[in-house]
Design a protein that fits this description.
It is built from two helices and six strands, in the order βββαβαββ. Strand 1 (4-9) and strand 2 (14-19) form a beta hairpin. It has a six-stranded mixed β-sheet, with helices on one face. It has helices at residues 37-54, 75-85, and strands at residues 4-9, 14-19, 22-28, 62-69, 93-98, 108-115. It is of the alpha+beta class and 117 residues long. The model has no long low-confidence stretch (mean pLDDT 96). Helices cover 25% and strands 35% of the residues. The two termini are 19 Å apart. InterPro entries: RutC-like_sf, YjgF/YER057c/UK114, YoaB-like.
């Protein structure tokens, strides 16, 4: 049985968990809470990139992505950033929905599962 590796762990959560050849990312949010959806999406996806790299993989190995939005009014602007970010030909499955996020300043949260290289 494979060991579980936890990345950036505290008492409440790990930002990523690695089990076998799979990487599970916790929700990634922007650093700039006052930014618009375009900037918050860029920042959240940059954190996904960083966590995947720390786990030994990258976005070309994404299997599934969940995008949570504060409002579906941001759907098109988020998609403009997301579509430019994903690797053509290696797009993961994806779900997107409106949710009440833990901090009302956040406009987006991104959760992902990837295969390791």
């Amino acid at each position: 049985m494979s060991d579980i590796t936890r990345i950036d762990q505290n008492a409440r959560r790990s930002r990523a968990s690695v089990f076998g050849d799979l990487v599970f990312l916790a929700g990634q949010v922007a650093d700039t809470k006052t930014a618009d959806i375009t900037q918050q999406t860029k920042e959240a996806l940059a954190k996904v990139d960083d966590m995947l790299a720390r786990a030994g993989t990258d976005k070309s190995r994404l299997l599934s992505v969940q995008v949570w939005l504060k409002t579906m009014d941001d759907f098109n602007a988020m998609n403009a950033v997301y579509d430019a970010w994903v690797v053509p030909g290696d797009t993961p499955t994806r779900a997107c929905g409106k949710v009440e996020l833990a901090d009302p300043a956040f406009l987006i949260e991104v959760i992902a599962i990837a295969a390791r290289k």
